[in-house]
Write a structure and sequence with these properties.
Order of helices and strands: HEEEEEEEEEEHEEEEHEEEE
Number of helices: 3
Largest sheet: 9 strands, antiparallel
Number of strands: 18
């Protein structure tokens, strides 16, 4: 009987002094992470050299709209994801949370020819990029030596004209078997075509199809912190608090 009373007293104290005071802050923090801002750990190399394995990226969940926390219901809307944005989304085939780059908007025709991206029949602009550039220089030497790097600029049509935008690094791995020819395919209404910047090592819309707008939960804006997974989580201080291209 005494033991039961003591257990009840302990539980009451635990609720009153620990659980109840922390419940509201916990709810507010998780709601903010759901609807306002979050961080996302990146374990794979599909976005190299823009995002490296071991990067933790900052995600702006207010980039496009305001949602009811813990749901996909929109309270307000002010923008749509743009071609070139790096977004956090859910893969339609598995529900896995991914970080990818938008290369196709609703109605766009996307094609890949020998690793070169075509949008609406227009070849995107490419320029050589040194292996000593930001991101590429942080790769393991064997991986860096096996890759070819380039700067890609996506085209954006504005008022009947075509402009270049979102210059960013991409890489290909010539010795790796990969899907280098794709399409053409037209992006469905209300959906987006996403790809990784590591074009020959990315599971993306070429494989799982278009990403519905509701499955895009925010824009990845920068690297928060970074650790080198190949060297005992050694911090990459040079990548801390840096913006994403």
């Amino acid at each position: 009987m005494v033991g039961r009373v003591n257990a009840k007293k302990i539980l009451t104290t635990l609720w009153r002094e620990w659980i109840r005071p922390l419940a509201l802050p916990f709810l507010l923090i998780t709601a903010a992470k759901s609807a306002i801002a979050d961080i996302n750990y990146v374990p794979s190399g599909s976005m190299q050299p823009t995002i490296l394995c071991g990067d933790v990226v900052f995600v702006n969940k207010l980039a496009y709209d305001l949602r009811v926390p813990f749901t996909t219901m929109r309270l307000a809307h002010w923008a749509e994801p743009a071609r070139g944005d790096v977004v956090v989304c859910f893969a339609p085939d598995s529900g896995t949370r991914l970080v990818k780059r938008i290369v196709g908007q609703p109605g766009d025709t996307i094609e890949l020819r020998r690793d070169l991206l075509y949008v609406n029949g227009v070849a995107q602009a490419y320029a050589p990029l040194a292996a000593t550039s930001r991101g590429a220089r942080d790769l393991e030497p064997a991986e860096r030596d096996a890759a070819i790097f380039a700067q890609e600029q996506l085209t954006t049509a504005v008022a009947g004209t075509t402009a270049l935008t979102h210059p960013h690094a991409v890489m290909i791995l010539p010795a790796r078997p990969a899907l280098r020819e794709f399409g053409p395919t037209r992006v469905a209404a209300g959906s987006y075509f996403v790809m990784g910047d590591n074009r020959d090592n990315s599971h993306d819309s070429r494989f799982f199809g278009f990403v519905p707008r509701a499955e895009i939960i925010g824009e990845a804006k920068g690297v928060f912190v970074s650790a080198d997974l190949a060297h005992w989580l050694r911090p990459r201080f040079g990548r801390f608090f840096t913006p994403l291209d």
